[in-house]
Amino acid sequence: MKLTILGCHSATPRDNARPTAQILEMKGHLFLIDCGEGTQMALRKNRIKFARIKHIFISHLHGDHVYGLIGLISTFCLLSRDSELTIYGPKGIKELILIQLKLAKVYTAFDLRFRESVENIPQLLLEDDSLTVTTIPLEHRVFTHGFLFQEKPGDRRLDIVACEEYGVDQAYYRKVKQGHDVTLDNGEVIANEELTMDGDKPKSYAFCSDTVYKEDIVPQITGVTALYHESTFLKAHENLCDRTKHSTAEQAATIALKAKVGTLILGHYSSRYGDYELFRSEAREVFENSELAMDGKVFEFSNPKL
Amino acid sequence: MKLTILGCHSATPRDNARPTAQILEMKGHLFLIDCGEGTQMALRKNRIKFARIKHIFISHLHGDHVYGLIGLISTFCLLSRDSELTIYGPKGIKELILIQLKLAKVYTAFDLRFRESVENIPQLLLEDDSLTVTTIPLEHRVFTHGFLFQEKPGDRRLDIVACEEYGVDQAYYRKVKQGHDVTLDNGEVIANEELTMDGDKPKSYAFCSDTVYKEDIVPQITGVTALYHESTFLKAHENLCDRTKHSTAEQAATIALKAKVGTLILGHYSSRYGDYELFRSEAREVFENSELAMDGKVFEFSNPKL
Known about the structure:
Low-confidence stretches of chain A: none
Oligomer: homodimer
Order of helices and strands of chain A: EEEHEHHEHEEEEEHHEEHEEHEHHEHEE
Structural class of chain A: alpha/beta
Largest interface: A-B, 35 and 34 residues
Shape of chain A: globular
Helix content of chain A: 10-25%
Strand content of chain A: 25-35%
Number of domains of chain A: 2
Strand order of the largest sheet of chain A: 6-5-4-3-2-1-18
CATH topology of the largest domain in chain A: Metallo-beta-lactamase, Chain A
């Protein structure tokens, strides 16, 4: 699992402070999460292949999370894309994109699908053999949800030494990894747990932006490998959170602590601040493993060597 | 008259190749012409004060000319703008912007006006004491017009030596500059031309992007101080002009020659080319005073010292 921060700043985009956009690489997928103005430039800068993006997840319809989407879709057209693209987001996103394509008389040669959400409960958006993507209901000034990306448990790990000792034919290895027992030529049945060990622990990523402090998301995101939680403000401006429906770094860390996540990633910093280290230090007072998102920064979450 | 190129490339924006946007400074106005994705970042980079922009001119509704507009308007809101903003563009631009503001639940505290064009004949968009702005009908894949910015003749220049010789009271100087004759205390009438010289020659700027070669714009733009004319292709790809409704550098230069303009500025280069100097050299074979637009380049057109 690999997370590339394309942009992590709030509100007004600047060349060195891009609005929200991230690429999550999980089980061979390349998911684009949010798409502020300039995202396509950031994709090029980070050398991410446009064609590999097949699913785009938009949290809400504020400009700093979506105004780069129409430009990206137009570029897909210019690049003669032919593979399907699905856009997940709040109701209205389809209208937002189609009106602009219509006015520009641009027609997509690829299949452009929309999956719009209206309900404020977790909804399964995507499922395949290896993962699921579910919405996380958030609370902001407009209808907003985050996204929970969860790997499914994979194969078990083969205990090669045990397999050889029992004389298991290599032709059965695939079945063994899938959890099957083995019947030897002499009729003896070897239980799968004699031949395998637990596989990689499935990883998961929760993206929560933008939102006011919302404790009831904790059960849904408990134990995730990584949580991105917006931290627009420092404690000094906590009084602005209620009106603007944003969080402080300390509040993000409190959610991380309660949800026992692996790593907390902070972002969506207000442009009023110059020193981002203050976000990290305020968060670390509550939750030690707090990190700062930065434009262009890559977080890799590999499996521990067993 | 000062022209700042914010972006001058066609199609897909990249960090070092921004889509079309320009700032024209004329008679105290700061006009924004076209607004591709990332224009607000380019405005910051070029240190242009957002609040000074009161009129935005959009040539057509292709993404590389307009997808930065909604982000810029949103930023105006975040910056608590209170002065009026007028947007001039093809029919549809109002719907394009308002649907996005509505979906983001953003309300402008300033007066946001739209002036939409549908007619393919020159139309006066703006007139004040010092200048006029008129549409230039162009031909592209969607309804497109350029813009002709024309200074009005200003005051006459005072001939100080003559004024002193005739003993004209300094209190009359303002009237004299405005073209009035002067009656001396002894009743003698001094004709204005005895006391003044021709003032600065009014300057003018024609913006023509995007368009196929269209000779019938020549009468309207004849004698302009500067012409920006798109040159998407080199001669080698002239065969693409008809289908895509674009021009070559040579065609742009032919228009410049026929219209006897002062300076031709080329731009809207296709991303297939690496060497922009080829555009200049192909244009200069037809029209010597051909220059290249480049992101961040500033063209100043000052009055010759008399």
